[in-house]
Write a structure and sequence with these properties.
Elements (H helix, E strand, L loop, with lengths): L1 H15 L6 H26 L2 E3 L12 H7 L4 E3 L3 H24 L4 H15 L6
């Protein structure tokens, strides 16, 4: 069922994207949508105040295992998104997904297949995948 939803999403975007099929335009719009997400988060902190960011040096013992490191490292943010900030961020993440799928379509890639391959890599490499 979930793979059908993703396939439908990818098909609809392919059908909708008529005017801007240029790979350069798609990449530019994808990057712009990334910047909008960051801007939305910054606004939640600086204009709305529903989120707070408190940073400090991350103290992480390099000799400890991933489970200990996971509990030692902090996210640096507190608070709960208000409804307006949540709506803005969700809308821009949706737009970001639109351009990600457009990029996949342009390169004849299937997003579902990519997700399956990445899931397999994560299962095999586990926590060592991102080190």
């Amino acid at each position: 069922m979930k793979d059908m939803l993703l396939a439908e999403f990818q098909y609809i975007i392919d059908d909708m994207l008529i005017k801007n099929k240029s790979i350069l335009d798609i990449i530019a719009k994808f990057q712009e949508s990334n910047a909008r997400i960051s801007s939305d988060i910054f606004k939640a902190v600086t204009q709305c105040g529903c989120k707070q960011i408190n940073t400090s040096l991350q103290s992480c013992d390099e000799n400890s295992g991933p489970e200990v490191q996971k509990t030692d490292v902090e996210s640096h943010h507190q608070g709960v998104l208000c409804e307006n900030c949540r709506d803005n961020i969700e809308k821009d993440i949706g737009r970001n997904l639109f351009y990600l799928v457009s990029l996949c379509n342009s390169m004849d890639l299937n997003l579902y297949d990519i997700l399956i391959k990445e899931l397999e890599r994560l299962k095999i490499l586990g926590k060592y995948n991102l080190i």
